[in-house]
Amino acid sequence: MRFVERRLARTVVEASGSFPSVVLTGPRRSGKTSLLRHLFPQAQYVLLEDPDVQARARSDPRTLIEELRSPVVFDEIQNVPELLSYVRTQVDGAPRKMGQWLFTGSQEAPMMQGVAESMAGRAAILQLLPLSVGETARANLLLGGFPEVLARPKGRDLWFSSYIQTYLERDVRAVTNVRDLATFRRFLALLASRHGQILNKSDIAAPMGVSVPTIAEWLRILEVTGQIVLVPPYYENFGKRLIKSPKVYWVDTGMACHLLGIASQAELERSPFLGSLFEGFIASEILKSQINHGRRKELYYFRDQQGLEVDFMFPGPEGKLWLVECKASRTVIPQMARPVKSLKRSIGVLETCRPMVVHRESKTGPQSSALAPGVEALDVRRFVEEVWGEDDLKKGRARRAAG
């Protein structure tokens, strides 16, 4: 698969014009290195996973830095975070030179500590997640969005198996001391079965035979390395008693499908997890849109103790609060609009809300956008275009019209 233009590219370029350095985080193999090398082809490239380069960076970092000609891309900076202090010296010596030091990193927590200590005010910190539907039509529920999986779909299962093994051996052990990797692998599979559910650490700990603090630590590892996202409940109560625990989703539904043993589209269609996987797919698309536009992540769900539940709430590009109900069905019916209609009435100021039902695409074409009075029905692609905003919507349509 040829290089796909990433939606984050414009934000990266803008950041490089405003900050001396740019730090690009995200899960392994999400395309961070490819993006920076595509945007800055003239930059020198230093791979900090190379043992010889690591040894030199640790033994004589000052000489290494001084021999480089900026701009420079340091790939996987979490392997030698002490380099950041020496880069800071270079930045402070030429404070008006923007975009000279570019970093990628796969582990947010350890690296962010180094950035906070060494590069505060000197670095723009951005995150790149796997490919979105808004970036390529190949991204879908079964495959997810990792570029290498989309490029070679037939090797999907082997790729995910290898990814998990590498991830366990390198990233997880680098963040914390997981002594029993076999148990941790079972934890990954069990967590996939809880995809889209309200998080209950005790419910996960009991069948694993480990403590709740251990589960909390493992969840933290997955979250800081970009594998899962915890979606908190919406904080406004609208006069209701609310559930306070977050929901848990795998960022990439291809990974979730693999962990659940779903290997084909036919198996996915029959799976009892289809609904939750689709819900997670929409959650990931919302977060990717926010991140790619350089905005902070703002995604919530709503559930009160009387049973009213709406899958997602978030501020849309036009400033309204979007109320989103996700349905894996390709056929939408008025009953699907009941939760968002009910919540809209509870909010009161109707002009501030945009309620909708998001559903899977139909081969026969889009359905009517009016599901019920005041509630829209949008298929996935139309929804993603709307989340992009007006300018991106026009670009997306032009790209599809061109083939």
Helices and strands in order:
Layout: H1 9-16, E1 21-25, H2 32-39, E2 44-47, H3 51-59, H4 61-67, E3 72-75, H5 83-93, E4 101-105, H6 108-118, E5 123-127, H7 147-151, H8 156-175, H9 181-193, H10 201-208, H11 212-224, E6 228-231, E7 247-250, H12 253-259, H13 265-270, H14 274-292, E8 300-303, E9 309-315, E10 321-327, H15 338-347, E11 353-359, E12 370-372, E13 375-379, H16 380-388, H17 390-401
Helix pairs in contact: 10-11, 14-16, 16-17
Characterise this structure.
This protein has 403 residues and is α/β, with parallel strands linked by helices. It has 2 domains: 9-127, P-loop containing nucleotide triphosphate hydrolases (Rossmann fold), CATH 3.40.50; 133-403, no CATH class. Helices cover 44% and strands 16% of the residues. The chain is built from 17 helices and 13 strands. The protein has a 6-stranded mixed sheet. Strands 2-3-4-1-5 form a 5-stranded parallel sheet, with helices on both faces. Strand 8 (300-303) and strand 9 (309-315) form a beta hairpin. It is globular. Mean pLDDT is 88; it is low at 396-403.
Summarize the structure.
44% of the residues lie in helices and 16% in strands.
State the share of residues found in helices, binned by percent. Answer: 40-55%
The 3D shape can be described as globular
Contiguous low-pLDDT stretches (5 residues minimum) are 396-403
C-alpha end-to-end distance = 16 Å
- Tell me the total number of β-strands: 13
What does the radius of gyration come to? 22 Å
* Mean pLDDT across residues: 88
Secondary-structure element string: HEHEHHEHEHEHHHHHEEHHHEEEHEEEHH
Question: If helices are DSSP runs of H or I spanning 4 or more residues, what is the number of helices?
Answer: 17
> How would you write the strand order of the largest sheet?
8-9-10-11-13-12
State the domain count: 2
What characterizes the major β-sheet?
A: 6 strands, mixed
The percentage of residues in β strands lies in 15-25%
Structural class: alpha/beta
